[in-house]
Structure prediction request, 148 residues.
Amino acid sequence: VEEPARVSVHGPEAVPRLFIQAWEGDRFLLLAEMSEDASLSLQQTLATNILRSLGEFSSKRLDAIHWPLFNNLKVSLNRVEHLLEAISGSYGKGGDRQVIVLGNGADWIEDALGKAPAVQFSGSLAKLASEPQLKRELWQMIKPLAAL
Prediction:
């Protein structure tokens, strides 16, 4: 039995659906998948607390990106290259900051920022808020960064 062909997520016909937000500090850039089904305030507080655990006490919340830009998926401004430009334009290239990515969309973020994240964690902020085990797993991944 032949498996169906997989559609490339980077192809021109693919339109990713993302809702991401970023926070920047002096040493870290945290980019996180956001959920509209959970309290945005809770998710934002959790992101700030994650950065505080890394010694970032004056982090700044950056704009959120909702994608696709238009509901009509055939609109040419919904293309992947426009998403990459939006991420890069909103969050910069990360500079010398270590990049931490929470949730889906890490491949888009890496392509847009031009560098691999120091930490890539599959759990979103909403999942972290509801599953204490995921918080422990994330802490084990970011703890070495706190010592730098």
The two ends are 51 Å apart (CA to CA). The chain has a mean pLDDT of 86. The longest helix spans residues 132-146. The chain is about 35% helix and 20% strand.
